[in-house]
Amino acid sequence: MKVLVLNGPNLGRLGTREPDVYGSTTHDDLVTLVGDTGRDLGLDVQVRQTDHEGELVGWLHEAADLGAAVVLNAGAWTHYSIAVRDAAAQLTGPLVELHISNVHRRESFRHHSVLSDIATAVMAGFGVDGYRLALEWLARRPS
Ligand code: DQA
């Protein structure tokens, strides 16, 4: 199974960004963690991060055309980007909406997601370990 792990704005700054909220794992560490997990599970996984909304939209189009599964941490775009939602709505493979932090314990503007009602599954609050859990779930899921 092909899986794209797509991270949105500010997630490239993991490790230095609000470590009390997001932990000390860097985005490079995350790429290694996801790569190792994908190999163990026999998944074809790629991790990408962007601070540019149009780039994420393009990657979602690519995933839609490939029929790939997507693990999407859209960061702040989760809460307001109809463009990201419209691109994600075109996916034919499973979509896991993921948040490192438990957004429901945070500011009220983080409680609403424009993605959750089109996602196959939603994860929040597992820290960066959530990425590993999402891949394990995708690998076990009947296609
Ligand atoms: C986040 C939560 C969002 O509210 C925030 O804007 C992020 C990261 C998370 O992983 O917990 O950038 O998606």
What features would you highlight for this structure?
5 helices; 5-stranded parallel beta sheet; alpha/beta; 143 residues; binds 1,3,4-trihydroxy-5-OXO-cyclohexanecarboxylic acid
What does this structure look like?
This protein has five helices and five strands, in the order E-H-H-E-H-E-H-E-E-H. The protein starts with a strand and ends with a helix. 36% of the residues lie in helices and 18% in strands. It has a five-stranded parallel beta sheet, sandwiched between helices. With 143 residues, the chain is of the alpha/beta class. Helix 2 (27-41) packs parallel to helix 5 (129-140) and helix 3 packs parallel to helix 4 (82-88). The longest helix is centred in the N-terminal third of the chain and has 15 residues, at 27-41. It binds 1,3,4-trihydroxy-5-OXO-cyclohexanecarboxylic acid. The site of 1,3,4-trihydroxy-5-OXO-cyclohexanecarboxylic acid has 10 residues, from loops.
